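quick one
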Amino acid sequence: MALFRIRRGAPEPERQSPPAEDWNPSGFALPRHVAIIMDGNGRWAARRSLPREMGHREGVKSMREIIRESGRLKIEALTLYAFSTENWSRPKDEVGALMSLMLDCFRNEIDELNRSGVRVRVIGDVSRLPDTHRAEIASASARTSGNAGLKLNLALNYGGRDELVRAARALARDCAAGILDPDSICEASLAARLDTAGLPDVDLLIRTSGESRLSNFLPFQSAYAELVVTPTLWPDFTAEEFHRALDEYFSRDRRFGGRK
Ligand code: FPP
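structure w/ farnesyl diphosphate:
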Protein backbone atom coordinates (compact mmCIF):
# COMPACT_ATOMS: atom_id res chain seq x y z
CA MET A 1 0.00 0.00 0.00
CA ALA A 2 1.40 3.37 -0.97
CA LEU A 3 2.26 5.68 1.86
CA PHE A 4 1.25 9.28 1.33
CA ARG A 5 4.16 11.40 2.50
CA ILE A 6 4.19 15.14 2.65
CA ARG A 7 7.34 17.09 1.75
CA ARG A 8 9.84 17.84 4.53
CA GLY A 9 9.39 21.25 6.06
CA ALA A 10 5.69 21.43 5.09
CA PRO A 11 3.25 22.47 7.83
CA GLU A 12 1.80 19.88 10.21
CA PRO A 13 0.77 17.12 9.78
CA GLU A 14 4.07 16.44 8.06
CA ARG A 15 3.28 12.79 7.41
CA GLN A 16 0.16 10.73 6.98
CA SER A 17 -0.04 7.04 7.76
CA PRO A 18 -2.10 4.44 5.94
CA PRO A 19 -5.25 3.49 7.87
CA ALA A 20 -4.56 0.58 10.22
CA GLU A 21 -7.44 -1.44 8.78
CA ASP A 22 -5.68 -1.46 5.36
CA TRP A 23 -2.80 -3.40 6.83
CA ASN A 24 -2.60 -6.69 8.76
CA PRO A 25 -5.88 -7.94 7.21
CA SER A 26 -5.16 -11.42 8.61
CA GLY A 27 -5.29 -9.97 12.11
CA PHE A 28 -1.94 -11.38 13.32
CA ALA A 29 -1.32 -10.85 17.05
CA LEU A 30 0.65 -7.66 17.49
CA PRO A 31 3.63 -7.52 19.82
CA ARG A 32 2.61 -6.18 23.23
CA HIS A 33 5.85 -4.27 23.68
CA VAL A 34 7.95 -2.78 20.88
CA ALA A 35 11.34 -1.19 21.62
CA ILE A 36 13.29 0.85 19.08
CA ILE A 37 16.95 1.87 18.83
CA MET A 38 16.58 5.02 16.74
CA ASP A 39 19.93 5.07 14.94
CA GLY A 40 21.27 6.89 11.89
CA ASN A 41 20.35 10.54 12.48
CA GLY A 42 23.97 11.63 12.03
CA ARG A 43 24.39 9.73 8.75
CA TRP A 44 21.08 11.10 7.48
CA ALA A 45 22.38 14.64 8.07
CA ALA A 46 25.88 13.91 6.71
CA ARG A 47 24.42 12.61 3.44
CA ARG A 48 22.77 15.99 2.99
CA SER A 49 25.78 18.00 4.23
CA LEU A 50 23.65 19.20 7.14
CA PRO A 51 24.72 19.57 10.77
CA ARG A 52 24.03 16.46 12.89
CA GLU A 53 21.45 18.41 14.87
CA MET A 54 19.24 18.52 11.76
CA GLY A 55 19.29 14.72 11.66
CA HIS A 56 18.12 14.59 15.27
CA ARG A 57 15.38 17.16 14.53
CA GLU A 58 14.20 15.09 11.58
CA GLY A 59 14.30 12.06 13.86
CA VAL A 60 11.67 13.68 16.06
CA LYS A 61 9.27 13.56 13.08
CA SER A 62 9.80 9.80 12.85
CA MET A 63 9.21 9.50 16.58
CA ARG A 64 5.87 11.30 16.18
CA GLU A 65 4.82 9.11 13.28
CA ILE A 66 5.70 5.84 15.01
CA ILE A 67 4.07 6.89 18.30
CA ARG A 68 0.89 7.80 16.41
CA GLU A 69 0.91 4.53 14.47
CA SER A 70 1.58 2.44 17.60
CA GLY A 71 -1.42 4.07 19.27
CA ARG A 72 -3.60 3.49 16.22
CA LEU A 73 -2.60 -0.18 16.05
CA LYS A 74 -3.30 -0.47 19.79
CA ILE A 75 0.16 -1.72 20.64
CA GLU A 76 0.36 -1.75 24.43
CA ALA A 77 3.87 -0.35 24.99
CA LEU A 78 6.50 1.45 22.94
CA THR A 79 9.97 2.20 24.31
CA LEU A 80 12.25 4.59 22.40
CA TYR A 81 16.00 4.93 23.03
CA ALA A 82 16.49 8.69 22.86
CA PHE A 83 19.62 9.34 24.97
CA SER A 84 21.94 6.71 26.43
CA THR A 85 24.29 6.86 29.41
CA GLU A 86 27.08 6.67 26.81
CA ASN A 87 25.79 9.62 24.74
CA TRP A 88 27.36 12.08 27.25
CA SER A 89 30.69 11.28 25.61
CA ARG A 90 29.62 13.01 22.35
CA PRO A 91 30.94 16.51 21.62
CA LYS A 92 29.48 19.17 23.92
CA ASP A 93 27.52 20.94 21.19
CA GLU A 94 25.78 17.70 20.13
CA VAL A 95 24.89 16.84 23.73
CA GLY A 96 23.56 20.41 24.11
CA ALA A 97 21.47 20.06 20.94
CA LEU A 98 20.01 16.75 22.14
CA MET A 99 19.24 18.26 25.56
CA SER A 100 17.41 21.20 24.04
CA LEU A 101 15.53 18.91 21.65
CA MET A 102 14.50 16.83 24.65
CA LEU A 103 13.06 19.91 26.35
CA ASP A 104 11.28 21.01 23.14
CA CYS A 105 9.74 17.55 22.85
CA PHE A 106 8.29 17.71 26.33
CA ARG A 107 7.07 21.28 25.91
CA ASN A 108 5.58 20.89 22.42
CA GLU A 109 4.30 17.33 22.25
CA ILE A 110 2.72 16.56 25.60
CA ASP A 111 -0.64 18.24 24.90
CA GLU A 112 -1.19 16.15 21.78
CA LEU A 113 0.07 12.96 23.43
CA ASN A 114 -2.27 13.60 26.34
CA ARG A 115 -5.22 14.22 24.01
CA SER A 116 -4.43 10.91 22.29
CA GLY A 117 -4.55 9.04 25.60
CA VAL A 118 -0.82 8.25 25.64
CA ARG A 119 0.76 7.56 29.03
CA VAL A 120 4.29 8.98 29.08
CA ARG A 121 6.99 7.54 31.30
CA VAL A 122 10.75 8.12 31.30
CA ILE A 123 13.16 5.27 31.95
CA GLY A 124 16.79 5.88 32.84
CA ASP A 125 18.59 7.79 35.55
CA VAL A 126 16.99 11.23 35.37
CA SER A 127 19.04 12.46 38.35
CA ARG A 128 21.83 13.53 35.95
CA LEU A 129 19.49 15.63 33.81
CA PRO A 130 19.14 19.38 34.38
CA ASP A 131 16.40 20.56 36.80
CA THR A 132 14.34 22.07 33.96
CA HIS A 133 14.24 18.69 32.22
CA ARG A 134 13.34 16.87 35.41
CA ALA A 135 10.49 19.29 36.06
CA GLU A 136 9.07 18.78 32.53
CA ILE A 137 9.44 15.00 32.83
CA ALA A 138 7.66 14.96 36.21
CA SER A 139 4.85 17.14 34.89
CA ALA A 140 4.41 15.04 31.69
CA SER A 141 4.36 11.80 33.69
CA ALA A 142 1.87 13.19 36.21
CA ARG A 143 -0.42 14.70 33.55
CA THR A 144 -0.62 11.51 31.51
CA SER A 145 -0.47 8.92 34.29
CA GLY A 146 -4.22 8.22 34.18
CA ASN A 147 -4.32 7.67 30.39
CA ALA A 148 -5.32 4.24 29.18
CA GLY A 149 -3.80 4.33 25.67
CA LEU A 150 -0.27 3.60 24.46
CA LYS A 151 2.33 3.27 27.20
CA LEU A 152 5.14 5.39 25.79
CA ASN A 153 8.51 5.03 27.50
CA LEU A 154 11.29 7.42 26.59
CA ALA A 155 14.74 6.16 27.51
CA LEU A 156 16.71 9.21 28.65
CA ASN A 157 20.14 8.86 30.22
CA TYR A 158 19.32 5.17 30.00
CA GLY A 159 21.81 2.31 30.13
CA GLY A 160 20.80 -1.30 30.69
CA ARG A 161 23.75 -2.06 32.96
CA ASP A 162 23.13 1.11 34.96
CA GLU A 163 19.46 0.12 35.36
CA LEU A 164 20.47 -3.36 36.60
CA VAL A 165 22.92 -1.85 39.08
CA ARG A 166 20.24 0.50 40.41
CA ALA A 167 17.81 -2.43 40.72
CA ALA A 168 20.47 -4.50 42.55
CA ARG A 169 20.97 -1.63 44.99
CA ALA A 170 17.21 -1.46 45.60
CA LEU A 171 17.15 -5.21 46.32
CA ALA A 172 20.11 -4.88 48.68
CA ARG A 173 18.44 -1.97 50.49
CA ASP A 174 15.23 -3.97 50.95
CA CYS A 175 17.20 -6.95 52.28
CA ALA A 176 19.14 -4.73 54.68
CA ALA A 177 15.85 -3.20 55.88
CA GLY A 178 14.46 -6.68 56.52
CA ILE A 179 11.65 -6.24 53.96
CA LEU A 180 13.07 -8.91 51.67
CA ASP A 181 14.63 -12.32 52.28
CA PRO A 182 17.73 -12.70 50.02
CA ASP A 183 16.78 -16.33 49.34
CA SER A 184 13.40 -15.26 48.00
CA ILE A 185 14.89 -13.02 45.30
CA CYS A 186 13.67 -14.18 41.91
CA GLU A 187 13.35 -12.79 38.37
CA ALA A 188 10.07 -11.10 39.29
CA SER A 189 11.56 -9.28 42.31
CA LEU A 190 14.37 -7.93 40.12
CA ALA A 191 11.96 -6.98 37.30
CA ALA A 192 9.81 -5.10 39.82
CA ARG A 193 12.78 -2.85 40.61
CA LEU A 194 13.68 -2.02 37.01
CA ASP A 195 12.56 1.26 35.44
CA THR A 196 10.14 -0.77 33.30
CA ALA A 197 8.35 -2.32 36.31
CA GLY A 198 4.82 -3.35 35.38
CA LEU A 199 5.46 -3.46 31.62
CA PRO A 200 5.48 -6.68 29.61
CA ASP A 201 8.82 -7.99 28.30
CA VAL A 202 9.92 -6.64 24.92
CA ASP A 203 8.48 -8.75 22.08
CA LEU A 204 10.00 -6.88 19.15
CA LEU A 205 13.23 -4.88 19.16
CA ILE A 206 13.83 -2.78 16.05
CA ARG A 207 17.15 -1.12 15.21
CA THR A 208 17.47 1.26 12.31
CA SER A 209 20.53 2.13 10.18
CA GLY A 210 21.82 -1.40 9.75
CA GLU A 211 23.92 -1.90 12.88
CA SER A 212 23.31 -5.26 14.61
CA ARG A 213 24.03 -4.28 18.21
CA LEU A 214 21.98 -3.99 21.40
CA SER A 215 23.98 -1.01 22.67
CA ASN A 216 23.06 -1.53 26.33
CA PHE A 217 19.32 -1.24 25.60
CA LEU A 218 16.87 -3.22 27.79
CA PRO A 219 19.13 -6.31 28.24
CA PHE A 220 16.88 -7.94 30.87
CA GLN A 221 13.57 -7.07 29.22
CA SER A 222 14.69 -8.13 25.71
CA ALA A 223 15.96 -11.58 26.68
CA TYR A 224 13.44 -13.21 24.29
CA ALA A 225 12.73 -10.28 21.97
CA GLU A 226 12.64 -10.79 18.21
CA LEU A 227 15.27 -8.54 16.62
CA VAL A 228 14.58 -6.72 13.37
CA VAL A 229 17.40 -4.65 11.88
CA THR A 230 16.60 -2.37 8.97
CA PRO A 231 19.13 -0.43 6.87
CA THR A 232 16.77 2.55 6.84
CA LEU A 233 18.12 5.54 8.75
CA TRP A 234 15.85 6.66 11.60
CA PRO A 235 14.72 9.96 10.01
CA ASP A 236 13.49 7.92 7.00
CA PHE A 237 11.65 5.37 9.15
CA THR A 238 7.94 5.69 8.37
CA ALA A 239 4.74 3.91 9.39
CA GLU A 240 5.14 1.77 6.27
CA GLU A 241 8.64 0.71 7.39
CA PHE A 242 7.17 -0.02 10.82
CA HIS A 243 4.58 -2.30 9.19
CA ARG A 244 7.40 -4.12 7.38
CA ALA A 245 9.16 -4.74 10.69
CA LEU A 246 5.89 -6.02 12.16
CA ASP A 247 5.39 -8.29 9.12
CA GLU A 248 8.85 -9.72 9.76
CA TYR A 249 7.89 -10.26 13.41
CA PHE A 250 4.72 -12.12 12.35
CA SER A 251 6.85 -14.48 10.25
CA ARG A 252 8.98 -15.53 13.24
CA ASP A 253 8.44 -18.77 15.11
CA ARG A 254 8.71 -17.86 18.80
CA ARG A 255 9.55 -20.88 20.94
CA PHE A 256 11.08 -19.27 24.05
CA GLY A 257 13.63 -22.07 24.30
CA GLY A 258 10.96 -24.77 24.12
CA ARG A 259 9.72 -26.95 21.24
CA LYS A 260 6.53 -26.82 19.26
C1 FPP B 1 21.40 7.92 17.05
O1 FPP B 1 21.79 8.51 15.85
C2 FPP B 1 20.38 8.71 17.71
C3 FPP B 1 20.53 9.33 18.91
C4 FPP B 1 21.77 9.30 19.69
C5 FPP B 1 19.46 10.08 19.54
C6 FPP B 1 18.08 9.78 19.08
C7 FPP B 1 17.38 11.06 19.14
C8 FPP B 1 16.27 11.43 18.46
C9 FPP B 1 15.51 10.52 17.58
C10 FPP B 1 15.78 12.82 18.55
C11 FPP B 1 15.03 13.10 19.81
C12 FPP B 1 15.96 13.30 20.90
C13 FPP B 1 15.63 13.39 22.20
C14 FPP B 1 16.76 13.41 23.14
C15 FPP B 1 14.23 13.42 22.70
P1 FPP B 1 23.32 8.82 15.63
O2 FPP B 1 23.53 10.26 15.95
O3 FPP B 1 24.16 7.88 16.43
O4 FPP B 1 23.47 8.55 14.10
P2 FPP B 1 24.76 8.01 13.35
O5 FPP B 1 25.01 6.63 13.87
O6 FPP B 1 24.34 8.03 11.92
O7 FPP B 1 25.88 8.97 13.64
